[in-house]
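Sat 14:20. Reprocessing the chain from the morning session after the first attempt stalled halfway. Input below, unchanged.
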Amino acid sequence: MHILISGANGLIGSDLAKNLSQKYKIFAIYRSKKKDIIKIKNIKWIKHDLKNKFVKKLKPIPKFIIHCAVTHEFSKRKNIDDYFQSNVISLKNLIDYAQLNNVNMIINLSTISIYGTVEKNILDEKYLPKNQDLLGTTKLLAEQILKQNKINFINIRLPGILCKMNKKNIPRPWLNLVLNKIKKNQKIDVYNLRGKFNNVVDTDEIAKFIKFLIKKNIKIRDTFNFACSKPIVLKKVLNIAKSQLNSKSKIIEIKNKKNNPFTISTKKLEKKLNYKTQPTDITIQKYLENFI
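Finished this time. Tokens:
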């Protein structure tokens, strides 16, 4: 079976392409220079900027589309047009392609940024968005466009994503930045040290979920938060990192009444699809093995 992945040369897209290529054939769309892509068996690279219609005749037709392409605050190109073209128009063009070619499902990698300012302790899908940034605004618009079209889809609203391809100088997600400081024995300033934390997931878990959807051949049109299960106290997260990295970093808690700690609820995912993500501590321990 064939899968089409957009943004396949980015950190998330490349991890997913490599993981899924072990079982499926991949059409990998990229728009940057060819030097940024890697040659792997079962991956066919297609250079195309998805701000333009995608009319290439792929044989065989992919059964699933995974939309990873995104513009965010760390992107090289990030003016308002970039946000709109990458986060909205690119998905619309993939929807048009999917409808013309009877694609089974679009799996849209969205973001918890669509919620904007979170003013509750547990964030679920019923929370009404407010004060979003450009990323949150454009990704929410993209979700709404999916809902308006007659195609099976899943939006997974993602927190910080841990990638195997993460480089030492990449400041995202927040946890990756902190782990680099811990590895260098630097002081760590953090908010809500005693608050619970699960605002993270890794690309292996995303790939595992995609395989689950394909195996079950689920027909659905819905949106889910997608983060680690079993939140743990943030201090424990950092202590795990210090222990595995043999670090002497000092952890300093910053007091900030305006900063609202929250955990991400995955109950809808568990209840409706009977799928439970990996616990927070296991995800971090596994990532640290690769990080070392």
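The chain has a mean pLDDT of 89.
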